[in-house]
Amino acid sequence: MIWQWFAKWRASVGIHAQKLVRFLWLSMRASLLFVLVGCPEKPTIVTAVCPDLAAGCQFLLSDRMIHAKANGAITAIRPFKLTITSVGAKQVSAEFVMQGMEMGPSRYRFISSSGDTWIADVMLPICVQGRRDWYMILNLDDRQVRVPFTSQ
Ligand SMILES: [Cu+2]
Questions:
Q1: How much distance in Å is there from the Cα of 147 to the middle of ligand 1?
Q2: Domain boundaries of the chain, sorted by first residue
Q3: Ligand 1: distance of its center to the CA of 138 in Å?
């Protein structure tokens, strides 16, 4: 009964209307699938506020207090010592990246110097676009924090 009606309807409407209905049906299915699967989101990284790494700063990562400090002004090519202090950390590493720009490999493993202090000798590459906006992705054991900073 419904199929007879459907056949009649198909015969009466033009091919364009049929295409439109088909399109609506397909897009409805697509959006339903989207809702069911869910928006594939990247796990969000916490961003810490550290306007001046050379002056040093403190921030919280989960329940841990982290202190970060460079031993001088941060410029490309000239190496600097970066000190991370965090109670109970077992492994500390960092990457230096720029948003939307491949800056080459720059992963640093921090060496435990004394107690809860970790040190790495870091050298930032020169940016061909002259940009100075960096992100340090700091890995502390299994946790990660993103620290934006500017080089000179
Ligand atoms: Cu760059």
A1: 16
A2: 2-37, 46-150
A3: 19
Helix (H, G, I), strand (E, B) or coil at 118: strand
d(CA 143, ligand 1 centre) in Å: 25
pTM: 0.70
Domain 46-150 classified CATH 2.10.10.90?
no
- Spatial distance between the Cα atoms of 112 and 92, rounded to a whole number of angstroms: 9
Look at residue 17 and tell me whether its pLDDT is greater than 80: no
Largest interatomic CA distance in the chain: 84
Q: How far is the CA of 101 from the centre of ligand 1 (A)?
A: 6
Interval between CA 114 and ligand 1 midpoint (Å): 34
Q: Could you give the CA distance from residue 40 to residue 90 in angstroms, rounded to a whole number?
A: 32
Confidence of residue 12 (pLDDT cuts 50, 70, 90): low
